Protein backbone atom coordinates (compact mmCIF):
# COMPACT_ATOMS: atom_id res chain seq x y z
CA UNK A 1 0.00 0.00 0.00
CA UNK A 2 1.18 3.49 -0.75
CA UNK A 3 2.42 5.37 2.33
CA UNK A 4 0.37 8.47 3.16
CA UNK A 5 1.96 11.88 2.77
CA UNK A 6 3.11 13.26 6.08
CA UNK A 7 4.55 16.54 4.91
CA UNK A 8 2.68 19.82 4.49
CA UNK A 9 1.20 20.65 1.09
CA UNK A 10 3.47 22.30 -1.37
CA UNK A 11 2.31 25.64 -2.79
CA UNK A 12 1.35 23.98 -6.01
CA UNK A 13 -0.79 21.23 -4.47
CA UNK A 14 -4.54 21.64 -4.53
CA UNK A 15 -5.85 21.91 -0.95
CA UNK A 16 -8.79 19.59 -1.67
CA UNK A 17 -6.32 16.76 -2.33
CA UNK A 18 -5.26 16.80 1.30
CA UNK A 19 -6.95 16.68 4.64
CA UNK A 20 -5.71 17.11 8.17
CA UNK A 21 -5.88 14.32 10.76
CA UNK A 22 -5.33 14.97 14.43
CA UNK A 23 -3.79 12.51 16.86
CA UNK A 24 -3.65 14.06 20.32
CA UNK A 25 -1.55 17.19 20.02
CA UNK A 26 -0.09 16.24 16.62
CA UNK A 27 -1.76 16.75 13.31
CA UNK A 28 -0.81 15.43 9.88
CA UNK A 29 -1.66 16.34 6.33
CA UNK A 30 -2.80 13.25 4.51
CA UNK A 31 -3.26 12.82 0.82
CA UNK A 32 -6.89 12.19 0.07
CA UNK A 33 -7.87 8.90 -1.47
CA UNK A 34 -9.71 9.34 -4.71
CA UNK A 35 -11.39 6.02 -5.32
CA UNK A 36 -14.92 4.79 -5.68
CA UNK A 37 -15.82 2.26 -3.02
CA UNK A 38 -17.88 -0.82 -3.72
CA UNK A 39 -20.95 -0.80 -1.45
CA UNK A 40 -21.40 -4.26 0.07
CA UNK A 41 -22.88 -5.83 3.19
CA UNK A 42 -20.47 -8.30 4.75
CA UNK A 43 -21.43 -11.50 6.56
CA UNK A 44 -19.13 -11.57 9.61
CA UNK A 45 -21.32 -13.83 11.69
CA UNK A 46 -19.11 -15.98 13.96
CA UNK A 47 -15.95 -14.75 12.21
CA UNK A 48 -13.05 -13.10 14.00
CA UNK A 49 -12.72 -9.33 13.70
CA UNK A 50 -9.93 -7.34 15.33
CA UNK A 51 -10.33 -3.90 16.86
CA UNK A 52 -7.12 -2.15 17.87
CA UNK A 53 -7.70 0.56 20.46
CA UNK A 54 -9.21 0.74 23.92
CA UNK A 55 -11.09 4.06 23.85
CA UNK A 56 -14.68 5.12 23.28
CA UNK A 57 -14.41 5.05 19.50
CA UNK A 58 -13.14 1.49 19.68
CA UNK A 59 -16.04 0.66 22.02
CA UNK A 60 -18.54 1.89 19.43
CA UNK A 61 -16.92 -0.18 16.69
CA UNK A 62 -16.88 -3.27 18.94
CA UNK A 63 -20.60 -2.82 19.68
CA UNK A 64 -21.34 -2.61 15.95
CA UNK A 65 -19.38 -5.74 15.13
CA UNK A 66 -21.02 -7.67 17.97
CA UNK A 67 -24.46 -6.59 16.74
CA UNK A 68 -23.58 -8.13 13.36
CA UNK A 69 -22.78 -11.43 15.15
CA UNK A 70 -18.96 -11.28 14.91
CA UNK A 71 -16.42 -12.65 17.38
CA UNK A 72 -14.26 -9.69 18.33
CA UNK A 73 -10.69 -9.46 19.60
CA UNK A 74 -9.79 -6.14 21.15
CA UNK A 75 -6.08 -5.31 21.22
CA UNK A 76 -5.07 -2.43 23.49
CA UNK A 77 -2.83 -1.88 26.50
CA UNK A 78 -5.80 -0.41 28.44
CA UNK A 79 -9.59 -0.34 28.08
CA UNK A 80 -12.05 2.47 28.73
CA UNK A 81 -14.93 1.76 31.14
CA UNK A 82 -17.39 1.19 28.28
CA UNK A 83 -15.20 -1.55 26.80
CA UNK A 84 -14.66 -3.11 30.23
CA UNK A 85 -18.44 -3.29 30.60
CA UNK A 86 -18.84 -4.89 27.17
CA UNK A 87 -16.11 -7.36 28.09
CA UNK A 88 -17.95 -8.40 31.25
CA UNK A 89 -21.17 -8.89 29.30
CA UNK A 90 -19.81 -10.70 26.27
CA UNK A 91 -16.73 -12.65 27.37
CA UNK A 92 -18.87 -15.40 28.97
CA UNK A 93 -20.31 -16.22 25.57
CA UNK A 94 -16.82 -16.11 24.08
CA UNK A 95 -17.87 -13.33 21.72
CA UNK A 96 -15.35 -10.78 22.96
CA UNK A 97 -11.71 -11.49 23.73
CA UNK A 98 -9.30 -8.98 25.19
CA UNK A 99 -5.53 -8.94 24.49
CA UNK A 100 -3.82 -6.43 26.81
CA UNK A 101 -0.96 -5.87 24.38
CA UNK A 102 0.22 -3.41 21.79
CA UNK A 103 -0.66 -4.44 18.27
CA UNK A 104 1.55 -6.85 16.33
CA UNK A 105 0.99 -8.72 13.09
CA UNK A 106 0.10 -12.05 14.80
CA UNK A 107 -3.12 -10.53 16.06
CA UNK A 108 -4.44 -10.73 12.52
CA UNK A 109 -3.87 -14.51 12.23
CA UNK A 110 -7.48 -15.60 11.59
CA UNK A 111 -9.08 -12.16 11.20
CA UNK A 112 -11.53 -11.42 8.41
CA UNK A 113 -11.66 -7.71 9.13
CA UNK A 114 -9.71 -5.17 11.20
CA UNK A 115 -10.49 -1.74 12.56
CA UNK A 116 -7.72 0.53 13.80
CA UNK A 117 -9.03 2.97 16.39
CA UNK A 118 -5.91 3.84 18.39
CA UNK A 119 -4.86 7.42 19.03
CA UNK A 120 -1.39 6.75 17.65
CA UNK A 121 -0.93 7.54 13.97
CA UNK A 122 2.14 5.33 13.58
CA UNK A 123 0.35 2.31 15.12
CA UNK A 124 -2.67 2.85 12.89
CA UNK A 125 -0.39 3.03 9.89
CA UNK A 126 1.33 -0.21 10.87
CA UNK A 127 -2.03 -1.95 11.28
CA UNK A 128 -3.13 -0.72 7.89
CA UNK A 129 0.05 -1.99 6.25
CA UNK A 130 -0.09 -5.38 8.00
CA UNK A 131 -3.75 -5.88 7.03
CA UNK A 132 -3.05 -4.91 3.43
CA UNK A 133 -0.19 -7.40 3.24
CA UNK A 134 -2.56 -10.14 4.38
CA UNK A 135 -5.41 -8.86 2.16
CA UNK A 136 -7.63 -8.31 5.18
CA UNK A 137 -10.09 -5.43 4.83
CA UNK A 138 -8.97 -2.63 7.12
CA UNK A 139 -10.63 0.53 8.37
CA UNK A 140 -8.64 3.24 10.13
CA UNK A 141 -10.98 5.55 11.97
CA UNK A 142 -11.09 9.08 10.53
CA UNK A 143 -8.34 8.32 8.02
CA UNK A 144 -9.72 7.24 4.63
CA UNK A 145 -6.24 7.23 3.10
CA UNK A 146 -5.29 4.26 5.27
CA UNK A 147 -8.56 2.39 4.73
CA UNK A 148 -9.32 -0.40 2.30
CA UNK A 149 -12.96 -0.14 3.37
CA UNK A 150 -14.95 2.66 4.97
CA UNK A 151 -18.02 2.43 7.16
CA UNK A 152 -21.19 4.11 5.98
CA UNK A 153 -23.70 6.00 8.10
CA UNK A 154 -26.64 3.72 8.56
CA UNK A 155 -30.38 3.99 8.98
CA UNK A 156 -31.14 0.89 10.98
CA UNK A 157 -34.53 -0.76 10.53
CA UNK A 158 -33.16 -4.25 11.00
CA UNK A 159 -33.41 -6.40 8.94
CA UNK A 160 -33.62 -3.41 6.60
CA UNK A 161 -30.45 -1.34 6.71
CA UNK A 162 -29.85 1.72 4.56
CA UNK A 163 -26.20 2.70 4.19
CA UNK A 164 -25.05 6.20 3.20
CA UNK A 165 -21.50 7.13 2.26
CA UNK A 166 -19.80 10.11 0.68
CA UNK A 167 -16.73 8.02 -0.09
CA UNK A 168 -14.94 9.61 2.86
CA UNK A 169 -15.25 13.14 1.44
CA UNK A 170 -17.86 14.68 3.75
CA UNK A 171 -19.02 12.94 6.92
CA UNK A 172 -21.25 15.95 7.73
CA UNK A 173 -23.11 15.67 4.43
CA UNK A 174 -23.55 11.96 5.05
CA UNK A 175 -24.97 12.68 8.50
CA UNK A 176 -27.43 15.24 7.10
CA UNK A 177 -28.59 12.83 4.42
CA UNK A 178 -28.98 10.08 6.97
CA UNK A 179 -31.14 12.37 9.14
CA UNK A 180 -33.41 12.98 6.14
CA UNK A 181 -33.72 9.29 5.47
CA UNK A 182 -34.51 8.63 9.14
CA UNK A 183 -37.59 10.84 8.81
CA UNK A 184 -38.72 9.15 5.60
CA UNK A 185 -38.54 5.52 6.66
CA UNK A 186 -41.08 4.50 9.31
CA UNK A 187 -39.60 2.62 12.24
CA UNK A 188 -42.01 -0.25 11.53
CA UNK A 189 -40.12 -1.05 8.32
CA UNK A 190 -38.12 -3.62 10.25
CA UNK A 191 -41.27 -5.51 11.23
CA UNK A 192 -42.63 -5.16 7.73
CA UNK A 193 -39.49 -6.74 6.28
CA UNK A 194 -39.49 -9.48 8.91
CA UNK A 195 -43.09 -10.46 8.02
CA UNK A 196 -42.28 -10.33 4.31
CA UNK A 197 -39.43 -12.74 5.08
CA UNK A 198 -41.82 -15.09 6.92
CA UNK A 199 -44.13 -15.25 3.91
CA UNK A 200 -41.45 -15.27 1.24
CA UNK A 201 -41.34 -19.00 0.52
CA UNK A 202 -45.10 -19.36 0.50
CA UNK A 203 -45.49 -16.48 -1.93
CA UNK A 204 -42.81 -17.99 -4.15
CA UNK A 205 -44.64 -21.30 -4.11
CA UNK A 206 -48.00 -19.69 -4.84
CA UNK A 207 -46.89 -17.51 -7.77
CA UNK A 208 -44.53 -19.35 -10.03
CA UNK A 209 -44.13 -16.46 -12.49
CA UNK A 210 -41.59 -13.95 -11.16
CA UNK A 211 -43.52 -11.00 -12.66
CA UNK A 212 -46.71 -12.03 -10.92
CA UNK A 213 -44.83 -12.49 -7.67
CA UNK A 214 -43.27 -9.06 -8.00
CA UNK A 215 -46.66 -7.41 -8.59
CA UNK A 216 -48.07 -9.23 -5.59
CA UNK A 217 -45.30 -7.95 -3.32
CA UNK A 218 -45.57 -4.40 -4.69
CA UNK A 219 -49.26 -4.40 -3.88
CA UNK A 220 -48.71 -5.91 -0.44
CA UNK A 221 -45.81 -3.70 0.62
CA UNK A 222 -47.48 -0.47 -0.48
CA UNK A 223 -51.03 -1.29 0.44
CA UNK A 224 -53.21 -2.29 3.38
CA UNK A 225 -50.72 -4.87 4.67
CA UNK A 226 -47.98 -2.29 5.16
CA UNK A 227 -50.45 0.23 6.49
CA UNK A 228 -51.74 -2.20 9.10
CA UNK A 229 -48.19 -3.01 10.22
CA UNK A 230 -47.38 0.72 10.47
CA UNK A 231 -50.53 1.23 12.54
CA UNK A 232 -49.49 -1.59 14.89
CA UNK A 233 -52.27 -3.94 13.71
CA UNK A 234 -49.83 -6.82 13.10
CA UNK A 235 -52.28 -9.68 13.60
CA UNK A 236 -54.79 -8.11 11.21
CA UNK A 237 -51.97 -7.54 8.71
CA UNK A 238 -50.93 -11.19 8.79
CA UNK A 239 -54.54 -12.32 8.51
CA UNK A 240 -54.93 -10.04 5.49
CA UNK A 241 -51.83 -11.48 3.87
CA UNK A 242 -53.00 -15.06 4.54
CA UNK A 243 -56.30 -14.17 2.94
CA UNK A 244 -54.64 -12.62 -0.12
CA UNK A 245 -52.50 -15.72 -0.55
CA UNK A 246 -55.49 -18.06 -0.26
CA UNK A 247 -57.52 -16.17 -2.85
CA UNK A 248 -55.51 -16.34 -5.97
CA UNK A 249 -57.96 -14.25 -7.95
CA UNK A 250 -57.61 -10.71 -6.75
CA UNK A 251 -60.60 -9.38 -4.89
CA UNK A 252 -61.71 -5.83 -5.62
CA UNK A 253 -59.61 -3.56 -3.42
CA UNK A 254 -61.32 -2.21 -0.35
CA UNK A 255 -61.07 1.51 0.16
CA UNK A 256 -60.27 3.33 3.37
CA UNK A 257 -60.02 6.84 4.72
CA UNK A 258 -57.10 8.57 6.41
CA UNK A 259 -58.27 11.52 8.48
CA UNK A 260 -55.10 13.56 8.69
CA UNK A 261 -54.25 16.77 10.52
CA UNK A 262 -52.07 18.99 8.33
CA UNK A 263 -51.04 21.37 11.13
CA UNK A 264 -51.37 25.15 11.16
CA UNK A 265 -49.49 25.97 7.95
CA UNK A 266 -45.75 25.37 8.12
CA UNK A 267 -45.20 22.12 6.16
CA UNK A 268 -42.36 21.18 8.48
CA UNK A 269 -44.92 20.66 11.21
CA UNK A 270 -46.49 17.69 9.40
CA UNK A 271 -46.05 14.36 11.14
CA UNK A 272 -44.09 11.51 9.52
CA UNK A 273 -47.29 9.51 9.27
CA UNK A 274 -49.11 12.36 7.55
CA UNK A 275 -46.29 12.65 5.02
CA UNK A 276 -46.37 8.95 4.26
CA UNK A 277 -50.14 8.76 3.82
CA UNK A 278 -50.01 11.82 1.59
CA UNK A 279 -47.75 9.87 -0.77
CA UNK A 280 -49.94 6.81 -1.02
CA UNK A 281 -53.45 8.28 -1.21
CA UNK A 282 -55.49 7.75 -4.40
CA UNK A 283 -57.51 10.93 -3.87
CA UNK A 284 -57.41 13.91 -1.51
CA UNK A 285 -60.32 15.80 0.00
CA UNK A 286 -58.90 18.95 1.58
CA UNK A 287 -60.03 21.97 3.56
CA UNK A 288 -59.50 25.66 3.02
CA UNK A 289 -56.92 25.90 5.79
CA UNK A 290 -54.55 23.38 4.26
CA UNK A 291 -51.71 25.55 2.99
CA UNK A 292 -50.62 25.46 -0.70
CA UNK A 293 -47.11 24.43 0.42
CA UNK A 294 -48.59 21.35 2.01
CA UNK A 295 -50.69 20.53 -1.05
CA UNK A 296 -47.48 20.80 -3.08
CA UNK A 297 -46.13 17.86 -1.11
CA UNK A 298 -48.82 15.50 -2.44
CA UNK A 299 -48.01 13.20 -5.34
CA UNK A 300 -48.46 15.31 -8.46
CA UNK A 301 -50.97 12.92 -10.02
CA UNK A 302 -53.25 12.66 -6.96
CA UNK A 303 -56.74 14.02 -7.75
CA UNK A 304 -57.72 16.79 -5.31
CA UNK A 305 -61.22 17.68 -4.18
CA UNK A 306 -61.71 21.01 -2.44
CA UNK A 307 -64.18 20.78 0.41
CA UNK A 308 -63.28 24.07 2.06
CA UNK A 309 -65.78 25.77 4.26
CA UNK A 310 -65.54 29.50 4.34
CA UNK A 311 -67.59 31.90 6.37
CA UNK A 312 -70.78 32.71 4.46
CA UNK A 313 -69.56 30.47 1.63
CA UNK A 314 -70.22 26.89 2.52
CA UNK A 315 -68.60 25.28 -0.48
CA UNK A 316 -69.68 21.81 0.53
CA UNK A 317 -72.07 21.10 3.43
CA UNK A 318 -70.67 18.76 6.09
CA UNK A 319 -73.17 15.99 5.25
CA UNK A 320 -72.03 16.06 1.62
CA UNK A 321 -68.40 15.76 2.72
CA UNK A 322 -69.27 12.77 4.92
CA UNK A 323 -71.12 11.11 2.03
CA UNK A 324 -68.30 11.88 -0.40
CA UNK A 325 -65.76 10.12 1.83
CA UNK A 326 -68.00 7.03 2.02
CA UNK A 327 -68.56 7.00 -1.74
CA UNK A 328 -64.85 7.35 -2.61
CA UNK A 329 -63.87 4.60 -0.16
CA UNK A 330 -66.58 2.32 -1.58
CA UNK A 331 -64.99 2.82 -5.00
CA UNK A 332 -61.91 1.11 -3.49
CA UNK A 333 -59.89 4.32 -3.10
CA UNK A 334 -57.50 5.25 -0.34
CA UNK A 335 -58.90 8.62 0.58
CA UNK A 336 -56.81 11.25 2.30
CA UNK A 337 -59.07 13.60 4.25
CA UNK A 338 -56.69 16.47 4.91
CA UNK A 339 -57.66 19.08 7.47
CA UNK A 340 -55.98 22.17 8.88
CA UNK A 341 -54.53 21.82 12.39
CA UNK A 342 -55.82 18.77 14.24
CA UNK A 343 -58.91 16.97 12.95
CA UNK A 344 -60.37 16.60 16.44
CA UNK A 345 -60.00 20.24 17.50
CA UNK A 346 -62.85 22.31 16.05
CA UNK A 347 -62.43 20.27 12.90
CA UNK A 348 -65.58 18.11 12.76
CA UNK A 349 -63.31 15.11 12.31
CA UNK A 350 -65.40 13.20 14.83
CA UNK A 351 -68.53 13.54 12.72
CA UNK A 352 -66.73 12.37 9.62
CA UNK A 353 -65.41 9.20 11.17
CA UNK A 354 -68.76 8.49 12.84
CA UNK A 355 -70.26 8.33 9.34
CA UNK A 356 -67.40 6.12 8.14
CA UNK A 357 -67.78 3.82 11.10
CA UNK A 358 -71.56 3.63 10.53
CA UNK A 359 -70.91 2.56 6.94
CA UNK A 360 -68.25 -0.02 7.80
CA UNK A 361 -65.43 1.93 6.10
CA UNK A 362 -61.98 1.36 7.63
CA UNK A 363 -60.26 4.57 8.73
CA UNK A 364 -57.39 5.89 10.76
CA UNK A 365 -56.82 9.26 12.38
CA UNK A 366 -53.52 11.12 12.31
CA UNK A 367 -53.31 14.00 14.77
CA UNK A 368 -51.91 17.33 13.65
CA UNK A 369 -50.51 20.31 15.50
CA UNK A 370 -53.49 22.44 16.33
CA UNK A 371 -53.47 26.18 15.59
CA UNK A 372 -53.25 26.99 19.31
CA UNK A 373 -50.01 25.03 19.75
CA UNK A 374 -48.48 26.16 16.47
CA UNK A 375 -49.39 29.84 16.66
CA UNK A 376 -48.51 30.13 20.36
CA UNK A 377 -45.12 28.44 19.91
CA UNK A 378 -44.20 30.58 16.90
CA UNK A 379 -45.39 33.73 18.68
CA UNK A 380 -43.31 32.96 21.78
CA UNK A 381 -46.36 32.69 24.05
CA UNK A 382 -46.21 29.61 26.28
CA UNK A 383 -49.80 28.52 26.86
CA UNK A 384 -49.08 27.53 30.45
CA UNK A 385 -46.37 28.89 32.72
CA UNK A 386 -45.60 28.25 36.36
CA UNK A 387 -45.92 31.95 37.25
CA UNK A 388 -48.80 33.01 34.99
CA UNK A 389 -51.19 30.23 33.99
CA UNK A 390 -51.96 26.79 35.38
CA UNK A 391 -54.66 25.97 32.88
CA UNK A 392 -55.46 26.65 29.27
CA UNK A 393 -58.82 26.52 27.58
CA UNK A 394 -59.69 26.38 23.86
CA UNK A 395 -63.00 27.94 22.71
CA UNK A 396 -64.53 29.13 19.45
CA UNK A 397 -65.51 32.77 19.25
CA UNK A 398 -68.10 32.46 16.48
CA UNK A 399 -70.20 35.60 16.22
CA UNK A 400 -73.89 34.72 15.93
CA UNK A 401 -76.55 37.43 15.75
CA UNK A 402 -74.05 39.99 17.07
CA UNK A 403 -73.08 37.98 20.17
CA UNK A 404 -70.68 35.26 21.20
CA UNK A 405 -72.23 32.44 23.16
CA UNK A 406 -69.68 31.35 25.77
CA UNK A 407 -69.60 30.47 29.47
CA UNK A 408 -68.08 33.82 30.53
CA UNK A 409 -67.76 33.19 34.31
CA UNK A 410 -65.85 29.99 33.56
CA UNK A 411 -63.53 31.84 31.15
CA UNK A 412 -62.90 34.96 33.22
CA UNK A 413 -60.77 33.21 35.81
CA UNK A 414 -57.30 34.25 36.97
CA UNK A 415 -54.21 32.18 36.07
CA UNK A 416 -55.88 30.73 32.99
CA UNK A 417 -54.99 31.15 29.32
CA UNK A 418 -57.88 31.38 26.88
CA UNK A 419 -57.30 30.53 23.23
CA UNK A 420 -60.09 31.65 20.93
CA UNK A 421 -60.44 30.04 17.51
CA UNK A 422 -62.48 31.92 14.88
CA UNK A 423 -62.52 34.97 17.13
CA UNK A 424 -61.66 37.81 14.73
CA UNK A 425 -65.17 39.06 13.96
CA UNK A 426 -66.37 38.72 17.55
CA UNK A 427 -63.20 40.18 19.07
CA UNK A 428 -64.82 43.36 20.45
CA UNK A 429 -67.66 41.40 22.07
CA UNK A 430 -65.20 38.86 23.42
CA UNK A 431 -62.94 41.42 25.10
CA UNK A 432 -65.90 43.38 26.52
CA UNK A 433 -67.50 40.27 28.00
CA UNK A 434 -64.29 39.09 29.63
CA UNK A 435 -63.85 42.52 31.25
CA UNK A 436 -67.53 42.58 32.27
CA UNK A 437 -67.11 39.19 33.94
CA UNK A 438 -64.16 40.23 36.06
CA UNK A 439 -60.90 40.16 34.10
CA UNK A 440 -58.98 43.46 34.47
CA UNK A 441 -59.04 45.55 31.29
CA UNK A 442 -55.22 45.50 31.47
CA UNK A 443 -55.17 41.71 31.00
CA UNK A 444 -52.62 40.96 28.23
CA UNK A 445 -54.22 39.73 24.99
CA UNK A 446 -52.80 38.98 21.56
CA UNK A 447 -54.00 38.09 18.12
CA UNK A 448 -51.91 35.95 15.80
CA UNK A 449 -52.48 36.16 12.05
CA UNK A 450 -51.60 33.07 9.95
CA UNK A 451 -49.49 31.55 12.68
CA UNK A 452 -46.38 29.50 11.71
CA UNK A 453 -46.37 30.85 8.13
CA UNK A 454 -44.23 33.53 6.50
CA UNK A 455 -47.25 35.83 6.84
CA UNK A 456 -47.47 35.47 10.60
CA UNK A 457 -48.16 38.72 12.46
CA UNK A 458 -48.64 39.07 16.17
CA UNK A 459 -50.39 42.02 17.78
CA UNK A 460 -49.91 42.01 21.54
CA UNK A 461 -51.93 44.45 23.63
CA UNK A 462 -54.57 44.29 26.39
CA UNK A 463 -58.23 43.33 26.53
CA UNK A 464 -59.06 47.03 26.32
CA UNK A 465 -56.81 47.98 23.42
CA UNK A 466 -56.69 44.84 21.26
CA UNK A 467 -59.97 45.35 19.31
CA UNK A 468 -59.03 48.84 18.00
CA UNK A 469 -55.49 47.79 17.26
CA UNK A 470 -56.75 44.79 15.31
CA UNK A 471 -59.26 46.85 13.34
CA UNK A 472 -56.49 49.24 12.31
CA UNK A 473 -54.10 46.44 11.31
CA UNK A 474 -56.33 44.85 8.62
CA UNK A 475 -55.34 41.32 9.54
CA UNK A 476 -55.85 38.49 7.10
CA UNK A 477 -57.47 35.28 8.48
CA UNK A 478 -56.96 32.75 9.85
CA UNK A 479 -56.32 34.37 13.20
CA UNK A 480 -56.20 33.16 16.75
CA UNK A 481 -56.75 35.16 19.95
CA UNK A 482 -54.79 34.42 23.11
CA UNK A 483 -55.81 36.02 26.40
CA UNK A 484 -53.91 35.80 29.69
CA UNK A 485 -50.80 36.86 31.57
CA UNK A 486 -48.65 34.52 29.41
CA UNK A 487 -49.02 37.00 26.54
CA UNK A 488 -46.59 39.27 28.41
CA UNK A 489 -43.82 36.84 27.49
CA UNK A 490 -44.24 37.44 23.77
CA UNK A 491 -41.99 40.49 23.73
CA UNK A 492 -39.18 38.51 25.34
CA UNK A 493 -39.66 35.11 23.70
CA UNK A 494 -40.76 35.87 20.13
CA UNK A 495 -38.20 34.00 18.06
CA UNK A 496 -40.00 33.63 14.73
CA UNK A 497 -39.99 36.96 12.96
CA UNK A 498 -40.82 36.58 9.28
CA UNK A 499 -40.97 39.60 7.00
CA UNK A 500 -39.53 41.91 9.66
CA UNK A 501 -42.40 41.58 12.14
CA UNK A 502 -40.63 42.32 15.36
CA UNK A 503 -42.03 41.30 18.74
CA UNK A 504 -44.31 43.86 20.31
CA UNK A 505 -44.80 45.74 17.01
CA UNK A 506 -48.27 46.66 18.07
CA UNK A 507 -47.52 48.25 21.39
C1 LIG B 1 -62.42 25.44 11.79
S1 LIG B 1 -61.11 25.87 12.87
C2 LIG B 1 -60.05 24.55 12.58
C3 LIG B 1 -59.05 24.36 13.66
C4 LIG B 1 -58.07 23.27 13.34
N1 LIG B 1 -58.72 21.98 13.32
C5 LIG B 1 -56.91 23.25 14.32
O1 LIG B 1 -56.75 22.27 15.06
O2 LIG B 1 -56.16 24.22 14.35
C6 LIG B 1 -60.36 27.21 12.00
C7 LIG B 1 -59.74 28.25 12.91
O3 LIG B 1 -58.49 27.81 13.41
C8 LIG B 1 -57.67 28.94 13.61
N2 LIG B 1 -56.46 28.76 12.80
C9 LIG B 1 -56.17 27.73 11.97
N3 LIG B 1 -54.95 27.87 11.45
C10 LIG B 1 -54.44 29.00 11.96
C11 LIG B 1 -53.21 29.68 11.81
N4 LIG B 1 -52.25 29.22 11.02
N5 LIG B 1 -53.03 30.83 12.51
C12 LIG B 1 -53.97 31.31 13.31
N6 LIG B 1 -55.15 30.69 13.50
C13 LIG B 1 -55.40 29.56 12.83
C14 LIG B 1 -58.43 30.15 13.16
O4 LIG B 1 -59.05 30.70 14.30
C15 LIG B 1 -59.43 29.55 12.23
O5 LIG B 1 -60.56 30.37 12.07
UniProtKB/TrEMBL annotation:
InterPro entries: 4pyrrol_Mease, 4pyrrol_Methylase_sf, 4pyrrole_Mease_sub1, 4pyrrole_Mease_sub2, CobA/CysG_C, NAD(P)-bd_dom_sf, Siro_Cobalamin_biosynth, Sirohaem_synt_dimer_dom_sf. One of its GO terms (molecular function) is uroporphyrin-III C-methyltransferase activity. Pathway: Porphyrin-containing compound metabolism; siroheme biosynthesis; siroheme from sirohydrochlorin: step 1/1; Porphyrin-containing compound metabolism; siroheme biosynthesis; precorrin-2 from uroporphyrinogen III: step 1/1; Porphyrin-containing compound metabolism; siroheme biosynthesis; sirohydrochlorin from precorrin-2: step 1/1; Cofactor biosynthesis; adenosylcobalamin biosynthesis; precorrin-2 from uroporphyrinogen III: step 1/1. Residues 257-466 form the Tetrapyrrole methylase domain. It catalyses: precorrin-2 + NAD(+) = sirohydrochlorin + NADH + 2 H(+); siroheme + 2 H(+) = sirohydrochlorin + Fe(2+); uroporphyrinogen III + 2 S-adenosyl-L-methionine = precorrin-2 + 2 S-adenosyl-L-homocysteine + H(+). The modification Phosphoserine is found at residue 166. Its EC number is 2.1.1.107, 1.3.1.76, 4.99.1.4. Keywords: Cobalamin biosynthesis, Lyase, Methyltransferase, Multifunctional enzyme, NAD, Oxidoreductase, Phosphoprotein, Porphyrin biosynthesis, S-adenosyl-L-methionine, Transferase. It comes from the Bacteria. S-adenosyl-L-methionine binds at residues 264, 340-342, 345, 370-371, 422, 451. NAD(+) binds at residues 56-57, 77-78. PANTHER family: SIROHEME SYNTHASE (PTHR45790:SF1), SIROHEME SYNTHASE-RELATED (PTHR45790). Then it catalyzes the NAD-dependent ring dehydrogenation of precorrin-2 to yield sirohydrochlorin. Finally, it catalyzes the ferrochelation of sirohydrochlorin to yield siroheme. This is Siroheme synthase. It comes from Nitrosospira multiformis.
